[in-house]
Design a protein that fits this description.
This protein is mostly helical. The protein is built from six helices and two strands; from the N terminus they run αααααββα. The protein has helices spanning 4-23, 25-39, 41-61, 70-86, 88-122, 131-138; strands spanning 124-126, 129-130. The chain has a two-stranded antiparallel sheet with strand order 1-2. A hairpin with a 2-residue loop joins β1 (124-126) and β2. The two termini are 25 Å apart.
């Protein structure tokens, strides 16, 4: 079990990591590209169209491949996606998003390895009880 002060410390460290990510070159690039995407009226119009088409297709798709409009709506969805993805601002945003995702994935891997190492190092069994103590509780040696 963690004490309140340990939880506060963990939250402070998590907030520090979040600020570092936001201040990083990758984080700043992502925020810049996001801002550009949100301010681009053509991109926003195509995103709205794509989202509307997704809703329509989901409704048609509920009835399966035998719905009479399924192929037409599927093609409309594909066209809307293609139009949206052809915009330079969308391409740049997706590149920045992938870079941020890679950074976050790498960071979560490092954190996961660190936690796994600490758990292994402490030989924790369950809820903070060490393996040796678990053996005593269960009667196993």
């Amino acid at each position: 079990m963690y004490t309140s002060s340990e939880i506060v410390s963990i939250l402070d460290q998590a907030e520090s990591i979040a600020k570092l990510i936001t201040a990083s070159e990758v984080g700043q690039c992502y925020l810049t590209r996001l801002d550009q995407l949100q301010k681009d009226e053509r991109a926003q119009q195509l995103i709205r169209t794509f989202n509307q088409q997704k809703v329509i297709f989901a409704e048609v798709d509920r009835y399966g491949k035998y719905h009479p409009d399924r192929k037409i709506e599927s093609e409309k969805l594909f066209v809307a996606l293609q139009e949206m993805e052809q915009l330079t601002v969308v391409k740049h945003f997706k590149q920045a998003e992938r870079a941020l995702e890679e950074l976050l994935s790498e960071l979560s891997g490092i954190i996961g390895q660190t936690i796994a190492y600490e758990i292994d190092e402490d030989s924790v069994c369950y809820k903070g009880i060490k393996v040796a103590e678990c053996a005593n509780i269960t009667g196993k040696s």
